[in-house]
Amino acid sequence: MELDIVELSRLQFALTAMYHFLFVPLTLGLSIIVAIMETVYVMTNRPIWRQMTKFWGTLFGINFVLGVATGITMEFQFGMNWSYYSHYVGDIFGAPLAIEGMMAFFLEATFVGLFFFGWDKLSKVGHLVTAWLVALGSNFSALWILIANGWMQNPVGAEFNPVTMRMEMTSFKEVLFNEVAQAKFVHTVSAGYVTAAVFVLGVSAWYLLKGRHIELARRSIAVAASFGLASALSVVVLGDESGYSASHTQKMKLASIEAMWETHEAPAPFTLVGIPDQEARETHYAIEIPWVMGLIGTRSLNTEIAGIDQLVETAEQRVRSGILAYDALMDIRADLNNIQPDDQLRFEQHSDDLGFAMLLKRYVDDPRDATEEQIQMAANDTVPTVWPLFWSFRIMVGLGFSFIALMGYFFFMSSFRGMRFPKLALQAAVIMIPAPWIAAEMGWFVSEFGRQPWTVDGVLPTAMSVSALSVGELLFTLAGFIIFYTVLFVVEMGLMIKYIRKGPYMDVDTTDAWMTKHNNRLATTPASELAPAE
Q1: Region 176-205: what's the mean pLDDT?
Q2: Dihedrals phi, psi of 267, to nearest 5 degrees
Q3: CA angle 155, 69, 143 (to 5 degrees)
Q4: Family, per the entry (predicted)?
C-alpha cells in the first residue's frame, strides 16, 4: 500500500469535512434562534417578531440548502475512498447514519418546506410547531452523525469476528450512549449555537452602525446576546466534559493536546503556551498553570495523567500482544470449518490489541515477521504530530472565552443599559463574525487529527482503511471536490451578503404601521399606564 494514497485520501476527506462544517454550526444555531423569535411572535402577536423570523429564516434557508449539498457528497466518500473501512466497520458505523437519514434528515427537510411556504396556509401555532420541528430535525441530525463519529473515537459495543473478518455490533445501547459521542454532541451543538448568536449579533451590529433596521437589530441583539451567553458558557462546561472523557478513552490525544511528554506528578499543570519539540520530546518556553490539567483531566488531585513516553511504552506492549492475536487469527483462518479451542482462546485473550498489530502492516506484510525496530516504529506511530494539536486547541479555547466576554457585555448593555451600544463595541461585534467558524474548525481538527494514526481508535489504522485507488484518480477527484466546494462557498457568501444588505423585505408595510402606532403610544401614554416592556 502506498502511503501517498493514504495521505491524499486523508487530505480529500479533511478538506470536504472542513468545507461542510462551514455550514453546519450556523444551521444548528440559527434554527433555534429563528424558532425562539417565532415563539415570541406567537406570544405577543407583534409583527416585528414575524418579520425577524422571516428575515433570519431566509439566511437559515440559504445556509441549510448549501450545507445539505456538501454533506451528501461526504457520505459517498466512505464507499469511494474508504472502502475497506466501510467493509470492516460498516455494521456499526452505518446504523447511526441510516437512522440520521430516515429520522432526522427527512424530518428536517420535510418541515423546512412547510416553514418557508406555510406562513399563509398554517395557523400561527401550527407554523410555530413547524419551526421547532425544523430545529429539532437539525439537532437530531447532528446527534446521529456524532454518535457514528463518537464510535470511531471510542469503539464500544462491538467486537471483531474472525470468521467474517469484520467488526460486528454487540450492543446498540452502548453505541448509542457512548460517553464520547454524548460529550461531542452537546459540545458541538453548543458551539453551533454560539456561532449563530455571534452571526446574528454581528449582522445586527452592522445594521446599527449603518442606521438601518434599528428595531429589528435591537431586538435581534437582545435575543442573540442572551442565547449566546448561555451557549458560550455551556461550551466551556461541556468542553471540560470532553477533556475528562478523553483522559480514559483517548489518553494519547489528551497528552498530545497538552504536549505532555512525561507523566507528571498529580495534579498535572496546564501548559498555557509553549513550543512543542517532538524530536526532542520537550516543550520549550512553557508557561504552566499548576493543577489545572489534573482537575480537567481527572477531576481529582491525586490521579496521574499519562505522558506521551509512557503511552508509547504501553503501545509497544499492545503491539506485541496484537501479534499474538494476529497469529491466532491466522491459525483460525487456516481451517474455518475446524476451529481449534486453543486458537479461539488465544485470539480472545489478545483480540483487543489486534489493531495495534495492524500498525505493522505499514512496514511488513506479516506482523509476525516484524523486527524489534519495526515494533518500536509502530509504537511511535501512535503519537500524532503534537504542535498543530497543541496550538489548535489553545486557539479554540482562547476564542471560546472571548465569546463569553462578547456575549456578556452585550447582554449587560441590552438588559441594564437601555441598549445603548458604543460604536467601538458594535464594530467589535462585526469583526467577531468569522471567529466562531475558526474555533469550530480548530475543534474538529483537534478531534480528528488527534485520533491519528487510527480511523477507528485502537481498532483500524488509517493506512489500512483506504480504497485501491491510484494517485492520479485521487488528485483528479481532489481537484474536483475543491472546485465544487469552493463554488458552493462563493455562492453561499454571495447570497448571504446579498440578503443581509437587502435587509428585511417581507411584511414591511405591516411592521412599519405597527411600529409607528407603537412608538406614538409610547410617546403619548404616561409611563405608569404602559404595559410591561418587551
Answers
A1: 95
A2: -85, 140
A3: 35
A4: Belongs to the cytochrome ubiquinol oxidase subunit 1 family.
